[in-house]
Every structure is written in C-alpha cells, then in structure tokens.
Amino acid sequence: MELKAAKWTLDEDLILPWVWAAVLIAVIFLAAIPVDSRAQMWVAGWVLLIMSFMRRRQRLPGSYRVLFLCLGAYLTARYFFWRTFSTLGYHDIASYIGTWLLYLAEVFGIVLYFLGLFVNVRPAKRAFAPLPDDPRQLPSVDVLVPSFNEAPEMLEVTLSAAVQIRYPKEKLRVYLLDDGGTVAKRNDPFAEEAAAALLRHQTLRALCERIGAHYLTRENNEHAKAGNINEALKNVHGDLILMLDADHVPTVDILEKTVGLFVRDEKLFLVQTPHFFISPDPIEKNLQVFERMPAENEMFYSVIQHGLDFWNGAFFCGSAGILRRKHLDMVGGMSGASITEDAETSLLLHRHGYNSAYINHPMISGLQPATYTDFVVQRLRWTQGMVQIFVLSNPLSVKGLTFSQRLSYLSSSFFWFFGYARVIFLVAPAAYLLFSLRVYDANLREVLVYAVPHLIAGLLVNDYLFGGVRWAFVSELYEIMLSLFSLPIIIRVLMNPHEPKFIVTPKGEQVSQDFISKLATPFYVIYAVTLVACGMGVYRFFEYPFERDTIYITMAWELLNLIVLNAALGALYERRQRRAAPRMPADIDAQLSFDGHPLIQCNINDLSGSGALLGVSESAIAPVRGVPRAELVVFNAALKKVSRLHVIIRSSRATGSGRAAVGLEFAPESQSEKLETVSLAFGDSGRWVRFMQTRSHKRQDQRQGILKSFLMMLTLGIKFGAVHFRAVFQDIFGGLIRPVGSTVRPAYQVLKRGVVKGRAWLLGASP
Description:
The two termini are about 40 Å apart. The longest helix is centred in the last third of the chain and has 28 residues, at about 705-735. The chain is an alpha+beta fold. About 55% of the residues lie in helices and about 15% in strands. The chain is built from 24 helices and 17 strands. Helix 2 (about 35-55) packs antiparallel against helix 3 and helix 5 runs parallel beside helix 7 (about 190-210).
C-alpha cells in the first residue's frame, strides 16, 4: 500500500490555520453583502454550475479544491445571512419558540459544516516508516487486551493473533486485562455471580498460559475500562502499548507498519490505525447492503482522520492504536473524567504539545454489534462521552492546544449533538401542517433562490469529500435512527456531566430468528405523525390556497422525512445471524489432501476462524463425498510458509458451470495448528486491503450521485419497510396475514418495477 508522506513544517503549522481562517472570513464577508432575490438567483445558479463542472473531476489540485469548498461555503453563508435577518419574524409565542428551535438546529448544521470544511481542506497521507535494521534500537511493546464479559472463544482468537505479531519476541509481551474476574466479582454476595466470575478467572488464566499470553486482573472494577488499563500499567513496562479491544484481531504486521514512526519522532504519543469490521452493523445487515454501500465508519477512518492528522489532531479511538508509555505516564495514564477515555486522553496529550499520527491501513478485524439495540448502546456511550468532553474539556477554552487542534476537537465533539438537530428536522414540518405554527417565515421564491442552492451546494461538497465512502442521505438514515435516543442522553449529560457510566457493548452475539426491534415504538409514533401531517398537508392545499407556497415546501420536506423513515423501519426488522464467526471473501489457492487420494486443487472463496468455503471442479467433488476428514494445504501469507490444517468436510454441492463448493470446518489437533488457523484467517493485512479495494472499485463502478442515492433510499424504504409492516401485521393478525400478504406482495412488485423504470428514465438508461 503506497501512501504519500504527510509533510508540513513548523511555520506552515502555525500559519496555515490563519490562512484558511482569512479565506473563510473573506467568503463570509462577500456572502454578507445584501442582494435582491433576482441577483441571488443568478449568482447561485452560476456558482452551482461551476461547482458541478468542477465536481466531475474526481481529484482537484490543492488550490482548486480550496476554491470548490469556498464556493460551497459561500452559498451556505448567503443562506445563513438571509435566514438570520429575513425569516425570524414573530407571529405568536408558540410559532416563535418553534422558529428559534428550528433556527438553532440549522445553525448547528452550518457550524458543523464549516468545521468539516476546515478539517478536510487538506488531508494528510502518511507513508510507513521502516523499522531500524538493528533490533536493539526497537522499543519494547506491551499488547493490552481489556476484557469484561466477552466469551473465552473470542478472546482466544484475539490473543492467538496477538502472540503471532511479527516483532522480536524478547520485546513483545501480550496481556489480557480481565475485568470480569476481579477479586470483588469472585467474592460477590450472590453465589451464582461469584461462581461465574471464579470460573471465568480460572478459564482465562489457563487460556493465557496455553497461548503464551499473560493474565492480569485487579481488586475491583473502579473507573471501568480506563481503570482497568491504568491498573495494568502498574504491572507492564514496555516502551509502547498496543491497545486492542477483545474482538479486534490484529494482523502480524501491525507493529512493522507503525513502530517506525515512534523511532522517527520522539514527541509522537499515538499512531492510530483504522477499525476494520468483518461483520455488518445492524443497519447494513437488516437492509442487506454490507458489500453494496459504504460502511458507516468508513467516512471517519477513510477521510476525516486524514484531515485531523494534517492538523495534528488525529485522536485515539480506543483500539488499534499504539501509544508511547512515558507520555501516557506523564498525564497519569488513561483519563477517566469522561466515558470516552480514548479521545479525552488524546486531548490531554495534545495539550502537552505531543504529536499524533494516523496510518490508513487495516491491521485489525473486528465485529460490529449484532442487533440494533446493541448498536444504540454503543453509539449512546460515544455520544455521552463526546458531550462530556465538550462540556468538561471544551476545546475552545482549554489551554495548550493550537488553533487548528481546537477546531479539530471542536468538530469531533460538537458533531455528537446531531440528535437535537435531527429530531427538530423530523417534527418541524409537522408543526406547521398539523398546528399551523409558522416556524419558517419565507415564500417559495425565497426558498428556491436561497435554501435550495445552499442544500445542493452542501450535497455537492459532501459528495466530493465523502462520495466514495458515504453516499447522500445515508448519514440522515443513521442519525435519525440514533437521534430519538441520543437527544435525551444529551440533555442528561448537559444537566449532569459526571453522571454517565461506562457500558460494555455486547459483541459476537447470535440472532437465531428474524424479529422486530424492541426499540421500534418511537419510530412508529414519528411515522404516524408524519403520515397524518402529509394527509393534513393535502387538506390544507385545497382549503388554504393562499398558503400553497409554504405547503409546497413543508410537504416536500415531510415526504423526504417519510422516505428516510421507511428505510429506518426496514432497518428495525432484525435479520437472523446464526454464524458467530463471520466469513469474509477470500481468493487463496489451496489443495485438499485425503489418505490414498491425489491432491485436489481448490480455491478458498471465503474464510473465517472456524471454517472455509472452497471452490473446486465438479469432477473432483466425488472423492470428497463420504470422506469426513481431510487436510487443507495452503500458503499462509501471514506466516510466509505453507500450513497443513486438519478440517472436517461439512458439505459439498455442485454450483453449475462445472464447478462445486465444499464447506469445511477447521479441526486443529494441536495448539500450534490453532495458531496457524488464526493467522491464516486474520493475520494477513493484505487480504483486508484487497477486500476494501475490491469493494471500493465496485462502488466506483456504480458510484452513487445525489439522484442515485435518493432513488436507492427510496427503494430500500419501499422494499424493507414493506417487510417490516408485513411482520407487524403477522404479529397482530396471525393466520389472517396470508390473504393480505398475497395482495401486498404483487402490489409491492408492481411498485418496485415502477421505481426501477422511473429511475432508469431519470438517469437516461434502459430499465
């Protein structure tokens, strides 16, 4: 993987933020010049035309990139000044309160937008720094794996991979930090809890001895994960610390590609690498878009962290990061004032003048939460922690940060207030349609010349910055699905910043059957309100002809909400997930060996830590049938040698075109063979890079523009929303659903064909 080095000098680091600030001030000054609606229409039209022309180029040179972003910022600033000085009129007290609630939500979005422009104006691309030739110059490394309630099977995989990291063995030690078997838990007054903790303690200690790792626990669970790590720091003595979550399996080269940066820069406290997931998050799984649509976290790890890195603002993400021990000691270890100890510790170390770096090369593979409920638990913990940082360590007021770092951390923490804005955007149009509240005092012409160019410019900028890793309207879907739960959390943290407690996200759970999420009720309420508001909008259209300008605006807004809510309901129908170890695509030549049979040439099509799917010629499948055990002979790229792995043949079937598929389960007969199995499945970072490149190329071939993304969201909502409602009817009416379903399904197919044909007509392609 070839990366350009991130280069900047001290002078540039000091001057560039002020240069960008000056450019932004100039843009805002021009945007503040008042013009009439006709002039605004011509200016906005030409700006959007220029942006559209520039957008056709995938990569703009540095100065043109800045120009493109400034044009988008100009239209947004024009909208802001018009919105502020022309639309906040007083009609009645209820409308006035609603007006300001909506206005503040829009201001939030605009501030976040400008912060995003600043962060991403010039992303850094770092090269790997080679390790010294003399092993004696290498720093020693402690690998810490904090654990609370994860299954021993999951921990065994992570620890097995960690002990195989390619690094001088005398300088590498692996530790399991078990917070589920503490002394306090083993002496719990409830006998069952105490027995479970004791069993866990004994099981994991034996596991560590067998693998070659070291087991650590502590007296109690004070300060959760941060306390667990800080207690461990008293017992480990490496120069560097590699932090891994319990489900984050490292590749063998994670230290080879990161430690060199520490050797080069004595002030470097962190090298962060991306979190790469081999399982879909619940929204991806339930909408069946895991390999079709960019993952939610890709925007952050593929784009935003590069932007933060340019400003020396890349921060620790809790795992897959390497920290320098002496710098960590200087600030008293992991900070525990908030429940996002990772970002908070990074902020503290940046305040002391230390540096961070980001390497965008996937060198861990992790698991996403299995259900929407678990997903919400995880994201709400992040929300609480980042809001705590905003309140308790506000980047604008704490000492020690550079100007650019202040804006970088402000962007990262301020983002998590999105729950407020999303809820307001959901209910604002209904406030007018249902209760006649005048929350947006403008006519249709003004909206077309001010608001619409601002929205289109924002979509163009977001598509330019994040189009390869985040399609239009996808952020809206994720944020809506979290906002109904995050808004109360935000309010609680603002009222009592010290209240939140750390909650561990469940991982590796199995979902045995399809079901509707127990968190669906608030969405039913919002959906019903939106439907009623749309019906009321039709009524008002005919009954109040003088208000049709406002009705056009609010109905378009409400219909967009309805489309995204349909997709949200589809994502709330949980799909079963029986396989605890997800299989990822592979393309590895191998051979199957049987007693008394010649070797069978095959290809590993997908692979996990527990098994694999082989592709073989149909003529070779005959000897496989009836043979329960075999040996898989494969070149193990992680270990750079041939591995011979014992397997159990679970299935074999013809797949057509002269090919067949053979399903295998690994059956290692020794500890060393277990380790080789783990390294084959998880140890080669090149496999993760190839997967991401293949997925990226597929997306580039079908790159979703704004219109395509809108139609995709519409299609997802129709398809999976219908599945959700059918399940609801099934629960309510039981056996009566069959005649209803026989009517709904053909109607859905007709509607789907209509959407496909309409999409093809709009895009100028054949359906």
